[in-house]
Each structure stands twice: as C-alpha cells, then as structure tokens.
Amino acid sequence: QIKAVIFDMDGVISNTVHLHYIVNKKVADRLGIAFNEEWNQKLQGLSRRATVQAIVEKSGVSLSDEEFESCCEIKNSHYIQLINELTEKDTQPGIRSFIKELKESGVTMVVASASQNASRVLTRLELLPYFAGVVDVTKLTRGKPDPEIFLKAAEMVHVSPTDCVAIEDGEAGLTGILQTEMFSVGVGSEPSLVRADLTLPSTEDLTIQVLEKALNRQDK
Ligand code: G6P
Ligand code: MG
C-alpha cells in the first residue's frame, strides 16, 4: 500500500528542464563556455548556487563573490520571466491524470524540488492544491544528492519512508532517494536512472497500477 508519493518537480511535473537550459546557457555564455542540453540534464536537481558553481568551475574563470552573486541573480530573474508565461499545458505528459488518480485514491503527495520557485510553478500549472506540502529548500542544510529533502518531505506528512514512493528524472535526486528506504522511480532516458527500483521511459507510464505491480514484485 502506497501512503505517500514524493515528486521532484522540474522534468517530472513541469516541462521546465528546457527553461533551466535557457537560463543556464546565459550563465555559460557570460563565462565564455559552450553549454548543451545534455549537460543541463546532468545538472538537474542541483540548487541554483550549485548549478552556477558547476558552470563556473568548468569554465576555469575565477569570479569575485559579487560576480558570482550576479550570475545567480541574472539566471533567476530570466527564469522568473519565463515561468510567468507557464500555463496548465506545461505539465509533463500524463502527469495531471496521475496526480488526480492519486488524489482520488487518498494518496498523500508532496513536492521535493530543489527549486525556490516550486510553489510559483505549481500555481501556474494549477496543481498546487493537490499537494499536502512543498519542502522549503531554504530551510535545508544540504541539497540533492543528499537525501535530506526526501526525508523532510516524508516527515512533513508523517509517513514512514518505507511507505513512500519517490519519483525523479535527475541523477542527483535519484542518488538522494537511493539513500533512503523509499521505493524509487526514475522517469526518462538519462542513463543513471537505471539505478532506480523502477525505471520508466516517460511520465506517461506512471499509474498506481504500474507502481503497485513493481512494489509487489519487490516484496517477493
Ligand atoms: C531544480 C532544477 C535545477 C535548478 C534548481 C534550482 O532542482 O532541476 O535545474 O537549478 O531546481 O532552481 P531555482 O528555481 O531555485 O533557481
Ligand atoms: Mg527534475
């Protein structure tokens, strides 16, 4: 019996991975290095600062603290402009019906996203009311790949990690889930997702039946 489902947001609920690509590329452009979708996918799940840090490190450019902060600000101000254009159509395939199915079955849902803009995005998608909570990343001590965000999500709704399913499309997030007792689901084609208890090619494949079948297989 699944009591709670913990969702990553970017790339699982919202189709915003490409928007992160656009703004991350702006940072890379400023530092004079090439950027591509593949690298962007690898960076998914890292906090805003950790993302900028990774790009700065690869560029070999040394930035003052002020310049570093300004990169973070530029990235976020552009990102906010982009997400203000989101509509309920910007959900990942099949996700809205999966969320509705979970709601109807009385399963608690929580969002564990590294994004400080998570509530804003979910509001734009008209999905915020479905969730019992959104983890406040500003109150965490460690970001993904640390498991803290997922454990916090379970704690928020008083569900034991063993009764939780956690869904990710990113390597860092999945690494976090794998350090908990949650049942892990990886969605997408990123190679590192094969480490999950269940790997599905698309969010369209998510149904309660598919999850329960996989959980029962694991119990045997
Ligand atoms: C998510 C995304 C990352 C992004 C991070 C911070 O984890 O997968 O690509 O860098 O959130 O997002 P924010 O909206 O706070 O800049
Ligand atoms: Mg993601």
Word description of this protein:
The structure is a single chain. By secondary structure, the protein is of the alpha/beta class. The longest helix has 19 residues, at 65-83. Helix 3 packs across helix 4 (65-83). The two termini are 15 Å apart. The protein has helices spanning 17-31, 37-43, 48-59, 65-83, 95-104, 118-124, 148-156, 171-177, 208-219; strands spanning 4-7, 108-111, 133-134, 164-168, 183-187, 198-200. The protein is built from nine helices and six strands. The structure holds 6-O-phosphono-alpha-D-glucopyranose (G6P) and magnesium ion. Magnesium ion is lined by residues 8, 10-12, 44-45, 169-170. Magnesium ion (MG) binds at residues 8, 10-12, 44-45, 169-170.
Contiguous low-pLDDT stretches (5 residues minimum) are none
Radius of gyration: 17 Å
Largest sheet: 6 strands, parallel
How much strand? 5-15%
Structural class: alpha/beta
Overall 3D shape: globular
Mean pLDDT: 97
Bound ligands, named by name, code or SMILES = 6-O-phosphono-alpha-D-glucopyranose, magnesium ion
Amino-to-carboxy terminus distance: 15 Å
Going across the biggest sheet, name each strand in turn: 3-2-1-4-5-6
Strand segment tally: 6
Output the number of helix runs: 9
Helix content range of the residues, please?
Answer: 40-55%
Order of helices and strands: EHHHHHEHEHEHEEH
